[in-house]
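Please produce the structure of this protein holding guanosine-5'-diphosphate.
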Amino acid sequence: EKADNENLRSPICCIMGHVDAGKTKLLDCIRGTNVQEGEAGGITQQIGATYLPGENLRDRINRELKVHVGLKVPGLLLIDTPGHESFMNLRSRGSGLCDIAILVVDIMDGIKPQTVESLKLLKMRKTPFIVALNKVDRLYGWKTCHNASIVKAKNQQSKDVQNEFERRLTEIIAQFKEQGLNSNLYYRIKRGENEEKREKEEKGEREETISIVPTSAISGEGIPDMLLLLVKWCQRDMVEKLTYRDKVQCTVLEVKVNEGDGTTIDVVLVNGVLHEGDQIVVCGMQGPIVTTIRALSTPHPLKELRVKGTYLHHKEIKAAQFIKIAAQDLKNAVAGTDIYVVGPNDDLEVVKELTMGDKESVMNRIHRTGEGVYVQASTLGSLEALLDFLKTPAVNIPVSGIGIGPVHKKDVMRARIMLEKKKKEYATILAFDVKVTPDARGIADKHGVRIFTADTIYPLINQFKAYIHTHKE
Ligand code: GDP
Ligand code: MG
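Below is the modeled complex.
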């Protein structure tokens, strides 16, 4: 009741889905830019974040849908995910920070393995999401209706195109059903349907129906619908969560060593204000890093952080924003951890402890028997997500050792202990999105320690399961 509607922060929205579904193109379409064609091989290599200001959001919606939205959020912060690292790193002390997600599915392809992985990540982090059923313009015979609402665009199509659309939609709804999810075209979900379901859910029953919005990232059909749906949903169901708070809440998404201006970190400021000159403590590989913010920059609104030479510099920035922080000694910062601002009344030692506590609690998640595989990941977010997967009843693989960063000789030596314990199958390193040094590889081969590598969770776990399986026979 007491939530201050006038003081909401921008929702943080992640774009997820399988490679080539059109995540980057969808963001391009929303912004009116063309990052996708400039990307090497069309594959997103870095995090792209875009701030869509309120006025723009309102215009896009009003122009096409002719509805007046009482906009309460200042804007929308959209984050493109290369693989799923940024989603995994958008965490704080074990919970997800992404307020909402768009899961992009190619209407011609349906659900693919990476879509399933996205679904599991979304479920694990309890992140609500909508589905963008993208590339509708690829339906044979589709008549382009630039930026039109999907209802209007669909009505302009021939009977054949409409039938083909329905056929594919039905198939994809069935595929979601196989994953245990109800879904439907967003305007076919009856008013009140989800409210009823939510009540049941509280009693432990099935979840609500997921909204599907058909889109084209090339010609813009369905984009206004998608934006309206996001805004309405946030303003109806997330007021509490989106109420702005003064206490700084800020998470490191990526650490970058740049030529020229040293090391920077890309962060998401969820709440509070950051200033140039603030003293901050960042979680480092070898311990807390105490440093001072030298510069704060953001992309221009509607541009993104990957587009060079478009930074805006700030003396201070208020949440929610995607920010590049330049400061000294950030080289060993751990992505996926929270940063702390040292206030005038804070005890630096206490802040340092707080900063390291989260990482330590993840690093301590080893099996009580001391028997299990060795897990190594690139960031705290990806490590935690992998540990969560390994722990699920369907997978259930115990872990005896944990590390962040490349696999070194010492990690192999630790995994080797399982051989002495007569647990040969556990003398294994699951290397998630990290490099294996040649030294480590050599020692592993010599001692019979297995190293499996992958940059997505499922293939990694499946390699290990296949190995265990053959090992047993
Ligand atoms: P991502 O890997 O999910 O980021 O996918 P991209 O945005 O890089 O898109 C992959 C390819 O699909 C590119 O060649 C895009 O031009 C194309 N594409 C994306 N969205 C659409 C769409 O709505 N319609 C059509 N026809 N092509 C699209
Ligand atoms: Mg992309």
